[in-house]
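Changelog-adjacent note: as of this version, every example in the card shows the full chain rather than a window. The one below runs 268 residues end to end.
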Amino acid sequence: MSEPANGLQWLGREVEEALRHKGATQQALADATGYKAPYVSKVKSGKAMPSPEFAVGCDRFFNTSGYFARLLAKISERGHPDWFVPYLELEKRAAKVEDYSNALVMGMLQTPDYAEATFRAVHPRETDDQIKARVEARLRRHDVMDRETPPLLWVILHEAALRTVVGGRAVMAAQLEHLVTESTSPHITLQVLRFMAGAPASSLPFTLLTSGDGATVLYTETRNQGHVNDSAAAVGSAQAAYEQLRAVALSPEESVFLIREIAEEYAR
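Full-length structure tokens:
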């Protein structure tokens, strides 16, 4: 059978086929994995992303030697271009993420409608299923913030990212309200770099990722290519630029006030 464009449907179909092959019921899988039958039903129908624990439980139940755990990992990367996967691995392991975005809201903090609008602009020839897979993959990036010990996420947004109307005014209003909500997390800090701040310390977006042992790498992008640089000179230069951006940006409190104010403008 071919792989569905929708990764959740793919995994769900594999669970359904494994149940059929084993001659087992949905309830039996629920009992074996410690989840409720409605949860299993949603996974099987491709309407819910299973947890890593559920995937491991499936492997035990079906005696599949890690197949479902590997499949879950594979579809978690599905929808991302190959060149972006190294960044995803760094993001998953990071203790601190410092991002500067000057055109669009950082992917990890995007709403489904905002993400869909960005993908439709960049990939106008793709099908609805292909776009949906991309959106699902992008939204899964937020999972790192739901860990028991999530990374400290510091995002500096140029005002241009807030003023660029992506997907329409209603989409923007919802996106900015989402940013306000995200800012209430003790692990997330947002700052806005106003137009009136003048020329920014960096004309391009970039991200600094620091692991638990204190090692920091710089991530940048060119069209259809991601670049990870761990040289002391490159990282040091980016850190200095980030400190300059942080210094001239609005305070976190002022930034959230401005984001809320612009959201209200879109909603009117």
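Structural remarks: The beta strands are 96-101, 152-158, 188-193, 206-210, 216-222, 225-229.
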